[in-house]
Amino acid sequence: MNNIGRNDPCYCGSGKKYKQCCAQRQSMAAPGGAGGLSGVAGIPHALQAALEYHQAGRFAQAEPIYRQVLALDPGNADALHLSGVLHHQTGRHAEAAGLIGQALTLQPEYAEAHANLGEAWRAMGQHDNAVACYSQALALKPGYAQAHYNLGLSLHAQGKLDAAVASFQQALTFMPEYPDALLALGRLLQGQGELKKALLCCQRLLKIQPGMARNWSLYASILELLSDEALNLVDPELLLHAFSQQVLDPQKLERLATAMVCADPLAQGFLLVAADAENGRTQIEAAVADGSLQPLLAMPLLLALLEQALITDYRLERLLALVRQALLAALLRTPQAEAAPVVERFACGLALQCFANEYIYTITAVEEAHIAALTDHLEAAFGQSQPVPAIMLALAGCYQPLYRQPFAAWIKPADWAQAHVQALLERQLGQPLQEDALKAEIPGLTGVADAVSQAVRQQYEENPYPRWKRRGVAGVGLPLDEALRQRLPHRDITAQLPAAPDILVAGCGTGSDAFQVAQSFAHAGILAVDISKTSLAYAMRATREFGVTDIDFRHGDILELGALERRFDLIVCSGVLHHMRDPLAGWRVLTGLLRPDGYMNIGLYSRRARREVSALRQLVAEKDYPATREGISRFRRDVMQGEAGIDIGVIAISPDFYSTSACRDLIFHVQEHVYSPLEIRDCLDALGLEFLGFEFSNPETRNRYLARFPDNPACDSLANWDTVEEENPAIFAGMYQFWVRKRT
Question: Can the peptide bond before residue 300 be classed as cis, meaning omega within 30 degrees of 0?
Answer without folding.
Answer: no
